[in-house]
Automatic annotation (TrEMBL):
Alphabetized UniProt keyword annotations: Cell membrane, Membrane, Transmembrane, Transmembrane helix
Membrane-topology descriptor: Multi-pass membrane protein
Pfam families attached to this UniProt entry: T2SSF
Membrane-spanning segments: 67-91, 220-242, 254-273
Name assigned to this protein: Type II secretion system protein GspF domain-containing protein
GO cellular component, one term: plasma membrane
Subcellular location: Cell membrane
Domain Type II secretion system protein GspF: 115-237
Natural source organism: Streptomyces kanasensis
Highest taxon of the lineage: Bacteria
Amino acid sequence: MTTVPVYAAALCLGTAVWLHAGHSRGARRGRLLFPGGACATVPATARRRPIGKPWSRLGPEWLCLPAAAALALLGGSPLPLPAGAAAVPLVRRRLRARARAKERDRRTDGVIALCAAVAGELRAGCQPAQALFSAARSTGELGEQEAAVLAAARFGGDVPDALRRAADADGAEGLAGLAACWQVAVDGGAGLAAGLDRLEAALRDQREQRERLRAELSGAWATVVLLALLPVAALAMGAALGAQPLRVLLHTPAGWACLLLGGALEAVGLWWARRIVEAGEEP
């Protein structure tokens, strides 16, 4: 039992040393970059963001470590500490996947707004290249290929090819439709504004269909989360009844076997349920 506070204290001490070392490196880097107090000349927009605070760069996944330390203290065993450390990359991967999905949705909405903006500029009397240039500058939804697309639109380059390269980004597939409309308008003389209106309507319908599908699958996701939390609720109920489930799981061979088997079944069940729900989300 006395080894648990030692593990927790070592973990807290190592975290504090790492944060202090990162802060010292950030301050030293600032002194090297801006000697003699030159950092006062940094613009106000750049000074709004704090610099040299490594804890501001830590994601929510690092909360697994203090949670594991608290569980180790409650159970009187160091076993939760490596489990918490192993959970950090898994949680980080899940959070990054969710962030990528949000960025994909945001980029899709931006492409729809870009099509609407280009069509509006064309109806206002602008030429296609000028309309694309103005709309792209106002919406900023061309991603990393924005400079290439703007250069092609401004200096008479291959705009459809630049748009197709920009459509390779996740969520920007609608730019390929914009490139096709542009190609047809240039080669065949068709109205670009009318084609962009139809493209915008199609992209909006696709987005609304995806949102309806997500709303229908929200119940399935809620069921998955509830099933995942049932073992935690069972442990809490056992502790409330005085059965000491943590002591049994963390200090007896039978508890270790149950913990290993239950964790494996929990992981397989979550993986399988996630595959089923994600298969339903595919168009």
